[in-house]
Amino acid sequence: MSGQSGDAGPVEVEPMPGYLDLITRASTVMLGAWRDCSSCGLEFSKRTLLDNAYITWTEIALFLFSAFLWTQVRRGLTESLFQPLAQWCRLLPKDAAKMPESAWKLVFYTMSWSYSTYLLFFTSYSFFHDPPSVFYNWQSGMSVPADIAIAYLIQGSFYGHSIYATVYMDAWRKDSAVMVVHHIITLALISFSYAFRYHNVGILVLFLHDINDIQLEFTKLNIYLKSRGGGYHLLNDVLSNMGSVSFSITWFWFRLYWFPLKVLYATCVSSLQSVPNIPFYFFFNTLLLALLLMNIYWFLFIVVFVVKVLKVKEVNDVREYEEEEGSKAAAGLLREPRAENNADDAGHHHSAQGKHVQNGVTKEKHL
């Protein structure tokens, strides 16, 4: 589909649809677009890519350099700050090994989500309150505002780093392979949306995904800290439980409610209303739907966690590999629930279960 400039958007803000409206209208619009795309095919896609993708070698080089820089910054902070802090807090050995990863992710996602929050609520952008506006006045090759371009560089390079980090730096878990796929999809969405100038919707996707990563890493850090020094610390236990509850609620609200009803409705329905021949309509929406499916997949872990807490008050981590699981089960010990960590110490109880996300675009970038 060749890109055409969209007209100015309507004055009135379109009300957010419900799930049924999303399903019926999106399916109708997409089926209609598929029937009308008589020239769709590999050759047409190649021509559309060449005509509408705008990204320079300088931008690619800057992305690669920034991804490398994130890796070096993480290593530096781990060696000079996070590991000494874990030793100073006298964390249990396995908690001390995992604490730097959570601390690093908490620092990054707090920074990135704060910046996307600033863009959506403290500038003139109206994308959150009026999602269809992400496509108003869209033009192929239009300039990307500097503040949004900065957000894209930060997020894109971080997910490039995260693909490497998940395989070579982070602890391997049952869903690590899914995490790698999540990071790849998120990076593809970020790169694709930037090159085709869908950056407005990209900022909205990043905002809706990064908040859960803040809560997840905050919860995990408090789980580690509540048994520091071999004792029990009530404050950290309370904070970890509060983080677990807020994580579960916001996961559903941001990723399974706002994300489909704001973002997917805008990309599936509103995009063709503003730009009838928008480029790569099906490819773009396929990636976003894949992101939604991964959000649902990880939400199942949260549901399992909640059910186990209600039934037995003590839960195992339903995602992670644990080499000592057999011996601990024989000893009658239960491990701590954590979305991305093996909770190996018998004194851990009632913690948060969930995912990383990227994803980051997870993310899970997320874009």
Top keywords for this entry?
about 375 residues; mainly alpha; 10 helices; disordered N terminus; disordered C terminus
Topology (SSEs and partners):
Layout: H1 19-36, H2 42-52, H3 57-88, H4 93-121, H5 146-168, H6 176-195, H7 199-225, H8 234-274, H9 281-312, H10 325-330
Helix pairs in contact: 1-8, 3-4, 3-5, 4-5, 4-7, 5-6, 5-7, 6-9, 7-8, 8-9
Structure notes:
- The chain is an all-alpha fold.
- 65% of the residues lie in helices and 0% in strands.
- The radius of gyration is 22 Å and the shape is globular.
- The model is unreliable at 1-11, 314-318 and 320-367 (pLDDT under 50).
Quick summary of this structure?
This protein has 367 residues and is mainly alpha-helical. The chain is built from 10 helices and no strands.
Largest sheet, if any? none
Number of E strands: 0
Order of helices and strands: HHHHHHHHHH
Query: Which ranges are low-confidence, i.e. pLDDT below 50, for 5 or more consecutive residues?
Result: 1-11, 314-318, 320-367
- CA-based gyration radius: 22 Å
Fraction in beta strands: under 5%
3D shape: globular
